[in-house]
Amino acid sequence: MEKRIVIDGVGEVTLRRSLRAKRYSLKIRGKEVLAVMPYQGSEALMRRFLEENAERIRAALSKSPEPVVWDERTRFQTLSFTLRIVREAGENFRARLSDGVLWIACPMETRFEEEAVQRALHDLVEKVMRVEAKRLLPVWVAELAERHGFRFAQVKISGSRTSWGSCSTRQSINLSLSLLLLPRHLIEYVILHELCHTVEMNHSPRFWALMDRVTDGKARALRQELKSYKPF
Fold first, then answer.
1. How deeply is 129 buried, as exposed, middle or buried, from its count of CB atoms within 10 A (0-12, 13-18, 19+)?
2. What integer pLDDT is reported at residue 32 of this predicted model?
């Protein structure tokens, strides 16, 4: 569960409650501050932590590269669509997915350098990516499970920006919608990784032996290649 909060001396922060988190943590991605806390943790405690570390956070933000600004020149590619941003007459942002292109129409007077505009664009893209992920990824999981003899309970799609996927002890597979940004062979690698966890709930030698079996011995090479990508 995520929400945006404002901290004096820091600005806007994305606050995420995580069932997997065992401690309070802070991450800086570009100009974005992500605060992760245990699901049943205290928001007041997290806010106090952010306020106490405001100077350190500002210093880290000052060293971060400027974020990429989306505008009419942007060419953003996912597994199932390419983003095109245009200006059109009208007062609101409008999104339409057609023939593999996600068209986002913006008012003629849109100022793309504004943070609120960038957030609106990213939110629209994320909504479409979530729909596409729910349409494509569960089918892919089922196909790979059948091909390699795995069983799983269900597939859930999340907006996680910290992991590509996970598997619970009840064989429920959770996949980030950010998978749509990866090449097909790496999407398959992540899915197979989680399917292997339905058998081996760890990263033991048995797990990697199973991964090598289903990836033709390429598990570690694919794992290394995945490290060069970051979630949406």
1. buried
2. 81
